[in-house]
Amino acid sequence: MTREREGHEPWRVGVLFSRTGVTAVIEETQLRGTLLAIEEINAGGGINGRELVPIIYDPASDERNFARLADHLLTDDGVTMIFGCYTSSSRKAVLPIVERRNGLLWYPTLYEGFEYSPNIIYTGAAPNQNSVELADFLVGRYGPRFYLIGSDYIYPRESNRIMRELLRQRRGTVVGEHYLDLHARPSEFRLLMREVRRSAPDVIFSTVVGQATVYLYQAYAEAGFDTRVMPIASLTTSEAENALMGADVASGHITAAPYFEGLGNPNDTSFTARYHRRFGQDQHTNFCVEAAYFQIHVFAAALAEVNSMDPDVLRPVVLTTDFEAPQGHIAIDRESGHTNLWTRIGRARADGRFEVVRESGRPVRPDPYLVAH
Questions:
Q1: Domains 3-125+264-343 and 128-258+345-359 share a fold
Q2: Which of 9, 317, 331, 346 has the fewest CB atoms within 10 Å, i.e. is most exposed?
Q3: What are the tens digits of pLDDT across the range 116-168?
């Protein structure tokens, strides 16, 4: 193939989001955000005149599939960029592969922090961009007694470790802590609500993910608890989970995230309208969609500048790239490979969307190791 011919070949990237399995409820929306951005870029002429083509696989919510498919993308498919992963378990399964093959993973999900890799661009929130502000808000508004409930894998346990330390600094206490399998059934959550009632916390802090999120909130509603007195607060519950559990069940509960649908700024209004036209008026955006969306545009801007998919060439430019995202102005932090993001706290409304009750006045620089906290 001649060099001139190569210059007209499409840019090919890997995409790994689950369309089946227990975390498909949110990963499917991340795939949509990714595809929406790719379609926008191609409609505008591609990148330096070349179309952007995704190679998409379904890891089925299984970290072993994420590892296997990442290796397949980097070797058999010959890509160097992978956009994907939701759980920290899937990210950690892919991490040694992208490091060994010198690929670049773009990870659009909040996580527990305390990680750095030159082969990952982190576009989801680090703990200082959600947990710290959430702890302040909850202790001040509801009280210092927390019951921690999580899915049983890396992120919930590490996130709860951080929350426990933040509570200690604020003279709060953990009155209970419980982990359930990602495949836990509704009956297990109903039993757990009995223990919550006995412990009488001021707040339930949830790091439950996927389909199990629905079961937790429904069990809470069946137990007759009052969100005005003891809400569920989360870093992971979005508009997608609210729609699945029912807006009436979600109403009144709290989430901390960089983005919620309906912020009202021009970028979000336009983004939301395009998303609704593409996927349906009943489909809401969320913070995972938004990160998956803007990271494609950040990648495209860097690629247009260097015209190379070599991670060693592209990454230095990515680390100087900013973008007007739906949440507001964001930028990739050159020191950590994480992203300057906005901090917001939302309360779920009766329509399944969130009312923002607190937000930062500017993007918050990532501090993934909580050095300043």
A1: yes
A2: 9
A3: 999 999 999 999 999 999 999 999 999 999 999 999 999 999 999 999 999 99
Judge whether 209 and 160 are in contact, CB under 8 Å: no
Give the list of residues 6+ apart from residue 225 with CB closer than 8 angstroms, or none: 193, 196, 197
Query: Which residue shows structure tokens 């860097």?
Result: 302
> Given a cut of 50, is residue 188 above it in pLDDT?
yes
Tokens of 41: 């870029």
Helix (H) or strand (E) holding 112: none
The CATH code of the domain at 128-258+345-359 is: 3.40.50.2300
Q: What confidence tier does 272 reach under pLDDT thresholds 50, 70, 90?
A: very high
> Please, which residues bridge with residue 121 across strands?
106
User: Which candidate, 345, 344, 346, 347, places its Cα nearest to that of 252?
Assistant: 347
Query: How many CA within 13 A on the CB side of residue 194?
Result: 4
pLDDT per residue as tens digits for the range 296-310: 999 999 999 999 999
Q: Report residue 305: phi and psi, to 5°.
A: -75, -45
* 203 secondary structure, DSSP code: E
Read off the DSSP letter of residue 182. T
Closest CA to 300 of 43, 6, 11: 11
